[in-house]
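Sample 3 of the quickstart, ligand protoporphyrin IX containing FE:
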Amino acid sequence: MSNPNRDTSAEQLSDYGRDHENNNEKITTSWGAPIPDKDASLTVGHHGPILLQDYNLIDELAHFTRERIPERVVHAKGAGAFGYFEVTHDITKYTAAKVFSDVGKKTPIAVRFSQVAGELGYPDTIRDIRGFAIKFYTEDGIWDLTGNNTPVFFVKDCALFPSFIHTMKRNPKTHMRPDYDMFWDMVTLRPETTHTCLMFFSDRGLPANFRRMHGFGVNTYAFVNSKGEFYYCKFHYRSEQENMDPATARKLAGEDPDYHLRDLYNAIEEGRHPSWRFYVQIMTPKQAEKSPYDPFDDTKVWLHADYPLIPVGRFVLNKNPGNYFAEVEQIGFDPAHLVPGIEPSPDRMLQGRLFAYGDTHRYRLGVNHLQIPVNSPLKAANFARDGRSTLHSQGEAPNYHPNSFNGPGIDKRAKALSPVIPLHGEAARTDNGNDDNFTQARLLYNDVMKSDERARLIDNMLDWLKPTKQEFRNRAIEMFAQVDAELGKKLKLGLNSSRHIDL
Ligand code: HEM
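Result:
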């Protein structure tokens, strides 16, 4: 009789047992030698101390004490899965990237979903932005599209990213989170956060699951086609967005902290493979020059009316990781992992990201993180050698360039696709924080959200505003009143009727 308290994920070990009924494998040390005993350490007499020569024990203990690696500084808790990307529409007039070269072409992918602020063991169903990163294993190398479930981000200059993240993390003295004062203080000092705040506190701040969640590249990238023509682009992946009500989310956070991981794992294991439609928005450099909003500002969207979604393909997740640590904890996405035909844009946040991910991977996973199978390109040939945990060091091939011994040479196609970008301007630090922070937020609030969505948004904002200081509440009321006077009034009213005492 089936046990109603168990789901597909609970059967994992039973499935293994069934699949390995005639397993004749013997326990070995990490160097493969069979061991004589696994239930007792080597002692001198029954109560005697353990001998240093119990190297089997030392082998295991020494590995155990090194089991954890640094967790991701952001996006620590997440779920991963594998599948494929398929081209359904021709976009070769915009890009020569091989991943898009033919309709019907399939490319293997890995995807990782995450929440931003919580640590590895944090409950899944808490209000946060969700990460939605895709690794494409293309013929031309790895392309990582490290996106989120919102089209915009809170801040737009990478100089502010670490501070903003700190406000979402634990208070350095109390070690508790969320610290509403840290959050509202910075948010209201930087009104560029307004647009993303409206999304964060909307229904989308609590997705029902990872399977039905939109994704966005967020930052602006660029395409180059085979004629060398250059376009700016944004990436979108769409599903049927499903959200969760805050009461259910709170309950699940206590009862089933891994709710989103379980949901994704079970769906894939049961053959209910989630899929998304993949789109791009395209802006020519001329349009970018004349755009009324900064196309490289990640707190802004490109309006669909001006830059419609162009269908490109679909992707499907049909395989769970064989081992979580090896394939999900050790996966590393990097916005600098681009391929010929796809380029960065001057988006200031993206520019910072181009440095930060490789840097953290060298710290978190080691200098040879690209040799870890889940991160490996189909092929790589360069002059980098050796380093800790080298798995292969390109054998006998020359380790310097140029050389006269037929070492790897330059790919002419990649050279032709490398754009020539005219740059001009004075080196200066220009704060772009007050660059029209309200027009798009107003559009979202008044024209996109329905009245019931607006009511829930206000409730959710009040939940986070009530515990903060009066000074920050006042600043928030003032900031959101610039989106819509009525929104400001409703927040003020809600806060005045608060039962919470001012902290
Ligand atoms: C300058 C700004 C940013 C910096 C310095 C930064 C830095 C980082 C770092 C250090 C990680 C951990 C990576 C790892 O350990 O593997 C990370 C993960 C991530 N970031 Fe950012 N980030 C920035 C902005 C953004 C933005 C704007 C987005 C929105 C698309 C974003 C999306 C993600 C995602 C989805 C992950 C998780 C990747 C995974 O699943 O492994 N980040 N970020």
